[in-house]
């Protein structure tokens, strides 16, 4: 596994898979944002009816959930897309805990049988079991922590990504994740400007952060404005990550529309522009094939997992997953009724 900057996409593959920019890399870049710890504040709880149902069976085995039998969906591909709160190129480091947090995590699930694809948007504050890594990458222990912190353990490149993948897989009951892409936050402004800016309607009050973002107006976000729009939390809306995630989805939809207006050669330019900010274990052929599938397949609505937001003893934000909502997401993504 290596940094993507050492494995650039071949021109022929890029042309065949122009849609992949909007479907995979752009999905990630549009919401790859950083978050300072001081921005994290207590959020409003999201209520959900809980049950004791838990998906624990092996991936190949049928399960029973709420009295209904389900079998695993065949021919699934699953990829974790991450936005890392680190500025500059993805160079990595020698520290065991300096990898940067994965503030944005999107799980892409492609169903080759039913020809659909869907994205699970994971709340970065989700409290899950996270592996604590040592200097050489060995697992020292596990702890309950924000899922975003899993990427912080490791070298900031492959080890960090693999640890983040492990945390998401564990949260989903051990489901296989076939690959990952991680982008540092600077890629947002770069790509935003490459498409000529992204138009959005401002539905929040950004007065104290960026007066140019006037509530109620429709503007074309440029450069750092895009970062402010998808990144800001403190002093905006109810200051919850849930509200920020909603703005990220709004931005993503608008960005995809702008991507649809680009020529096929744009994918080459986009990859070149952000490749230094990227780490992935996906080869160019895999990415190209994935892009073709996502162009042809039906896109299903975003999924999220309900939960309750709060703060821990140190004042850091937490998001306690509703277990029934989690199991519903697992069943919806990975199983079908028998």
Could you give the topology of this structure?
Blueprint: E1 2-3, H1 11-16, H2 20-29, E2 63-65, E3 68-72, E4 76-84, E5 102-111, E6 116-122, E7 127-133, E8 139-146, H3 158-171, E9 179-184, H4 187-194, E10 198-201, E11 218-221, H5 224-231, H6 241-260, H7 266-274, E12 278-280, H8 284-296, E13 298-299, E14 303-304, E15 307-311, E16 317-321, H9 323-334, E17 335-337
Helix pairs in contact: 2-6, 2-8, 5-6
Family: Belongs to the LytR/CpsA/Psr (LCP) family.
InterPro entries: LytR/CpsA/Psr_CW_biosynth, LytR_CpsA_psr
Pfam families: LytR_cpsA_psr (PF03816)
Task: Summarize the structure in words.
It is a single chain. This protein has 9 helices and 17 strands. It is of the alpha+beta class and 338 residues long. The protein has one domain: LCP protein (Aminopeptidase, 3-Layer(aba) Sandwich). The strands form 5 sheets. Strands 1, 4, 5, 6, 9, 12, 13 and 14 form an 8-stranded mixed beta sheet that branches. The protein has a 3-stranded antiparallel beta sheet with strand order 2-3-17. Strands 7-8 form a two-stranded antiparallel ribbon. A hairpin with a 5-residue loop joins strand 7 (127-133) and strand 8. It is globular, with a radius of gyration of 19 Å. Residues 1-57 have low confidence and may be disordered.
């Amino acid at each position: 596994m290596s940094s993507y900057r050492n494995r650039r996409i071949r021109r022929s593959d890029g042309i065949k898979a122009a849609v992949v920019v909007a479907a995979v890399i752009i999905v990630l870049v549009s919401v790859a944002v950083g978050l300072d710890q001081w921005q994290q504040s207590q959020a409003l709880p999201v209520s959900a009816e809980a049950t004791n149902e838990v998906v624990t069976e092996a991936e190949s085995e049928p399960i029973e959930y709420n009295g209904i039998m389900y079998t695993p969906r065949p021919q699934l591909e699953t990829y974790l897309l991450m936005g890392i709160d680190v500025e500059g190129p993805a160079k990595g480091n020698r520290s065991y805990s300096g990898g940067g947090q994965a503030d944005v995590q999107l799980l892409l699930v492609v169903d080759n049988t039913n020809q659909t694809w869907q994205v699970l948007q994971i709340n970065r504050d989700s409290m899950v079991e996270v592996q604590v890594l040592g200097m050489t990458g060995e697992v020292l222990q596990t702890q309950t922590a924000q899922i975003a912190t899993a990427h912080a353990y490791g070298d900031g490149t492959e080890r960090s990504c693999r640890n983040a993948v492990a945390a998401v897989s564990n949260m989903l009951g051990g489901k296989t994740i076939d690959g990952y892409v991680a982008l540092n936050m600077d890629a947002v402004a770069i790509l935003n400007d490459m498409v000529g800016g992204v138009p959005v309607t401002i539905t929040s009050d950004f007065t104290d952060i960026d007066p140019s973002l006037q509530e109620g107006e429709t503007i074309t976000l440029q450069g750092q404005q895009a970062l402010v729009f998808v990144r800001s939390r403190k002093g905006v809306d109810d200051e919850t990550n849930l509200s920020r995630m909603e703005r990220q989805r709004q931005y993503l939809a608008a960005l995809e529309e702008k991507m649809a207006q680009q020529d096929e050669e744009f994918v080459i330019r986009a990859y070149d522009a952000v490749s230094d900010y990227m780490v992935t274990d996906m080869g160019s052929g895999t990415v190209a094939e994935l892009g073709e599938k996502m162009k042809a397949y039906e896109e299903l609505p975003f999924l999220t997992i309900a939960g309750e937001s709060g703060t821990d003893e140190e004042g850091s934000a937490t998001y306690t997953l509703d277990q029934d909502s989690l199991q519903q997401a697992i069943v919806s993504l990975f199983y079908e009724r028998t």
